[in-house]
Write a structure and sequence with these properties.
heterodimer, A: 170 residues, mainly alpha, Four Helix Bundle (Hemerythrin (Met), subunit A), 8 helices, extended, B: 143 residues, 5 helices, elongated
Chain lengths: 170, 143
């Protein structure tokens, strides 16, 4: 995965960047399967590697396939990025160890979900039970976010399309 | 890519399976991995695949823009409607226990409709975004 990420940074041809992005998503999905997060892996494979690759290819068709050379050496952005990476890595040191059963997230409501979900909802897949039932409000919010994204794309792109014949203009 | 015989045959073979897989992910989400979001994306991906092989106009004839746009709103309304149904039957908003005499069956029913709403909205939005992006450059080129 690190090799793919490095290749994405080095590549100047945007077509191979998009394809490598799809490869990265698939690798990420396999990592998620290894972590037993099958639902997330499925989403990653279908959205990250499937739909977004197609959308990026569509965008490439519109704007050409070669990355422009940067005008100046971007030292300041690089420094800012490195500082933020350092801060994030430092932040992970404070997290509980990986799969530590005493981590706060595992002792709050998770035991109740795991023990009661089947009894209360009759749904064997706890992920679905939490997503649709216990966290129904959150999922409603997510659906509204997706709806808003669609509405935003319609609002932004439709007006331009209607004036195809009249040349450029808003 | 309409001229490539292999692609067309493979697409015609694969698309029905993709649609069935989307339905499987949708309705089997209670028991295995998956659910409305994944099913919506897979269903949209099958139409995107169709559009890539047979061209965007063919896909637009198959799934017209009006259908896609109404799907976007319909899914959210269905989700919110399940919540309102909970209120109408004497519970809280998005309370599934009151949807059936047996609370567990009520949960099943609520989750089913909520997931259906998610799937409808997600596939509508994905398709709409694809139509918009793919339709832009082409429309300008043809002028």
């Amino acid at each position: 995965m690190a090799a793919v990420a490095g290749a994405i940074v080095v590549q100047r041809n945007l077509f191979s960047v998009v394809v490598l992005g799809g490869v990265y998503s698939f690798l990420m999905a396999t990592v998620l399967v290894a972590l037993d997060a099958v639902d997330v892996a499925m989403t990653e494979a279908s959205v990250g590697a499937g739909i977004s690759t197609v959308l990026l290819l569509g965008a490439l068709y519109l704007c050409g396939g070669e990355e422009a050379k940067p005008l100046a050496r971007p030292w300041l952005p690089l420094a800012i990025a490195l500082i933020i990476v350092g801060a994030l890595v430092y932040g992970t040191l404070g997290l509980p160890a990986f799969s530590d059963p005493a981590a706060p997230i595992h002792v709050h409501v998770v035991p109740r979900y795991l023990s009661e979900a089947l009894k209360e909802t009759g749904v064997p897949n706890v992920v679905t039970a939490v997503l649709a039932s216990y966290r129904g409000y959150d999922t409603l919010g997510e659906t509204v976010v997706v709806f808003t994204a669609g509405a935003g794309v319609i609002a932004l792109l439709r007006r331009v399309r209607r004036q195809d014949g009249g040349g450029e203009g808003r | 890519m309409r001229g490539f015989l292999v692609l067309r045959v493979v697409a015609k073979l694969l698309i029905p399976f993709m649609l069935v897989f989307a339905l499987y992910v949708q309705f089997h989400g209670d028991f295995g991995p998956g659910g409305g979001f994944q099913a919506g994306v897979i269903g949209a991906a099958s139409v995107v695949f169709y559009a890539l092989i047979f061209g965007l106009p063919a896909a637009r004839r198959l799934v017209p823009d009006a259908v896609v746009e109404s799907m976007i709103g319909l899914g959210v309304l269905l989700y919110a409607g399940v919540g309102l149904a909970g209120i109408a039957l004497g519970g809280n908003y998005l309370d599934y226990f009151v949807l059936d005499r047996n609370p567990v069956d009520g949960q099943h029913r609520g989750i089913f409709w909520v997931e259906a709403g998610v799937a409808i909205t997600v596939s509508g939005v994905m398709l709409k975004i694809f139509y918009m992006f793919a339709g832009r450059g082409r429309g300008l080129d043809e002028e």
